[in-house]
Amino acid sequence: MTEQSYNQALMALAQAGLADLAARNANPGSIKTPAAESHFLCNWMVQALKERRFSKLVADDLTRWIREGRSKGAGAQLPQLLARIQDQYLPAMENAEVGQSLQALIGELEAQDWLIILDCEVSGKLRLDCDGKNSLVISVEQYEQHLVEGKLIKPITLYIRADEQLIAQHAVKHALLLSQGDKKASCIKHHKAYRLYPGNQQPALALLKA
C-alpha cells in the first residue's frame, strides 16, 4: 500500500469534513448559522483525531484547528478553511509543470514592476534596497541548479517582500503551493522565505488565500 503524502492526507480530511457538514446541513432541522457549523466541525475534528481517522501527517493541523475552534467559535471559520484548502490544493495537486508555473509567475511579477533578482548568490545576511517595491529574490545557485529545462527538480527558496495575501493570490493563480512565510529563516532583511517543492509536495500546510 502506497503511503499518503501530506497533500493527499490534507485533501482527504478537507473533503470528508465538507461532505459531513453538507450532510448535516441537508437535515431540515439543522441550525445553519456560522457558529453552529463551526461548532459541528470542531466536534467532528475532535472525534476524527480521537479515532485516528486520518493520517498522522495532519494530526498537528487538527489539534491547532480544534484549539482555534474552541477559543474563537465562529471566528475560527472552519468551514471556510476546509473549502479554501480544497479549492487551492486540487489544482495544485494536478499541476504537473510546477517549474513552468514558477517561471510564469516570475514573468508576471516582472510585468507588474516587481524587483526580481535571480543572478545573485544568497548567503549570510543581506539587505536589499528596493525603494518600497515588491521584490522577489532567488539565489542564483538554486535558480540554475534546481530549475532545469523548465522542471523543478529540487526544493527552491523564494525570498519575497510583499503583502502576504498578494503572494497567496499569485500562487493560487499559477496553481503553486508555497510554504508559510518564514521571516526568521530569511537571509534578506524585510523579506520572508517561502519554499516551493517539486510536484507541489509541501510537507506542511501551504500559504492559503483568504
From TrEMBL:
Which Pfam families does this one have?
Answer: DUF2913
Protein's UniProt name: DUF2913 family protein
Species whose genome carries this gene? Shewanella insulae
